[in-house]
Amino acid sequence: RTGPGAACRLSRAESERRCRAPGQPPGGALCHGRGRCDCGVCICHVSEPGVFFGPLCECHEWVCETYDGSTCAGHGKCDCGRCKCEEGWFGDACQYPTHCDLTKKKSNQMCKNSQDVICSNAGTCHCGRCKCDNPDGSGLVYGKFCECDDRECIDDETEEICGGHGKCYCGNCYCEAGWHGDKCEFQCDITPWESKRRCTSPDGQVCSNRGTCVCGECSCHDVDPTGDWGDIHGATCECDERDCRAVYDRYSDDFCSGHGQCNCGRCDCKVGWYGKKCEHPRSCPLSAEESISKCQGSSDLPCSGRGKCECGKCTCYPPGDPRVYGKTCECDGRRCEGLDGTVCGGHGTCSCGRCVCERGWFGALCQHPRKCNMTEEQSKSLCESADGILCSGKGSCHCGKCICSAEEWYVSGELCDCDDRDCDKHDGLICTGNGICSCGNCECWRGWNGNACEIWLGTDYP
């Protein structure tokens, strides 16, 4: 060719001849059957990039075999994906010496795995190095001591490695997103993104880095070898009861120094005690009832359900967050934030958890302009649900946005199609006062978790 898109000047026969290995007769495989011939040039398969290369796609894999962490065992050079061994060595990774100066006893000793089994009963010992049994040449049995058997990954029905939906490493399948099972034989009924979202803990880690996520559910790493209920639990493995023990001992009941109750890895101390493990005594002139009364204020709950009451004083959660304040933690600026983090939609200021809108804007988050620049038809088209009902029949339409009925406090959503009565309650409050109800589900503030945002995961309060 003379340039991109130009016609090929070679005849078809000449083009194919250049793509065929020397000595191959006409009609033989082009590009070693690993690519397509384009005007006498082999374009290696792009479905597996980097696997096949070379002028005629004659090379397979860029990386040569390794032994004990060294390419070609340090006794050869890698050429076209295969080891070319130095004199005196042989094997796929040049790991075997042609002449052995070891005794049989010493050789066998070097071939024993951690259980003192020679080559894991899956190979033979050759001069202190294991030669794994692979009679069919598949290479599925491998490892320094032949400890890895990838035949364990073969699906009995499809006869594919990990069912074709994962990679096998040392006899264990590591499944692609959306698949699970010992051999990746089961498909999730939710998307990988939804699965990850459900498994993500408030700190942004999948299963709190204490478990594995399978189809949106966390399987926590159970630290109890008996298989009974372990110290790590929770929907996202966020609870670690070991944090409540002064000195960790699996079989002791010494939680919170005996002066409190462990709640999801956090000690709730009895009156008169404080500290991360309730290890410090505290003297308070108030009775428990007097202390709670001072913390209650006009709220039904001590510290408005957003803090801890100690000797008549509230410590608001999360500690150090300026958005939660007040003598009884009654002000929560997080209620002024939209899902995108914008305070009062950028059109107002937050005053003790309520938006004071600028002129020309209204709504709980100052999200509605008083003047609209669209026609009534345009506005209504944005407010109609799939069944053609305006704002689901539970609100009014203003400038393309629904304003849900104030009489039915539980109605919410862009089209007033959500029922916030479905949100879980705890201690009489929706989302325990530690989150916002979003279409029937609790969206917890940072540091909180649980169906009702009742579990505090943040740094321990002072």
From TrEMBL:
<dbReference type="InterPro" id="IPR057073">
    <property type="entry name" value="EGF_integrin_2"/>
</dbReference>
<dbReference type="GO" id="GO:0008305">
    <property type="term" value="C:integrin complex"/>
</dbReference>
<keyword id="KW-0732">Signal</keyword>
<dbReference type="GO" id="GO:0009986">
    <property type="term" value="C:cell surface"/>
</dbReference>
<dbReference type="InterPro" id="IPR057243">
    <property type="entry name" value="Integrin_I-EGF_CS"/>
</dbReference>
<keyword id="KW-1015">Disulfide bond</keyword>
<dbReference type="GO" id="GO:0016477">
    <property type="term" value="P:cell migration"/>
</dbReference>
<feature type="domain" description="Epidermal growth factor-like">
    <location>
        <begin position="153"/>
        <end position="184"/>
    </location>
</feature>
<dbReference type="GO" id="GO:0005576">
    <property type="term" value="C:extracellular region"/>
</dbReference>
<feature type="domain" description="Epidermal growth factor-like">
    <location>
        <begin position="336"/>
        <end position="366"/>
    </location>
</feature>
<dbReference type="GO" id="GO:0007229">
    <property type="term" value="P:integrin-mediated signaling pathway"/>
</dbReference>
<keyword id="KW-0245">EGF-like domain</keyword>
<dbReference type="Pfam" id="PF07974">
    <property type="entry name" value="EGF_2"/>
</dbReference>
<feature type="domain" description="Epidermal growth factor-like">
    <location>
        <begin position="423"/>
        <end position="453"/>
    </location>
</feature>
<dbReference type="GO" id="GO:0005178">
    <property type="term" value="F:integrin binding"/>
</dbReference>
<dbReference type="InterPro" id="IPR013111">
    <property type="entry name" value="EGF_extracell"/>
</dbReference>
<feature type="domain" description="Epidermal growth factor-like">
    <location>
        <begin position="253"/>
        <end position="278"/>
    </location>
</feature>
<keyword id="KW-0325">Glycoprotein</keyword>
<keyword id="KW-0677">Repeat</keyword>
<feature type="domain" description="Integrin beta epidermal growth factor-like">
    <location>
        <begin position="107"/>
        <end position="147"/>
    </location>
</feature>
<protein>
    <recommendedName>
        <fullName>Integrin beta-like protein 1</fullName>
    </recommendedName>
</protein>
<dbReference type="GO" id="GO:0007160">
    <property type="term" value="P:cell-matrix adhesion"/>
</dbReference>
<dbReference type="Pfam" id="PF23105">
    <property type="entry name" value="EGF_integrin"/>
</dbReference>
<dbReference type="GO" id="GO:0098609">
    <property type="term" value="P:cell-cell adhesion"/>
</dbReference>
<feature type="domain" description="Integrin beta epidermal growth factor-like">
    <location>
        <begin position="14"/>
        <end position="58"/>
    </location>
</feature>
<feature type="domain" description="Epidermal growth factor-like">
    <location>
        <begin position="64"/>
        <end position="94"/>
    </location>
</feature>
<dbReference type="GO" id="GO:0033627">
    <property type="term" value="P:cell adhesion mediated by integrin"/>
</dbReference>
<keyword id="KW-0964">Secreted</keyword>
<dbReference type="GO" id="GO:0005925">
    <property type="term" value="C:focal adhesion"/>
</dbReference>
<dbReference type="InterPro" id="IPR015812">
    <property type="entry name" value="Integrin_bsu"/>
</dbReference>
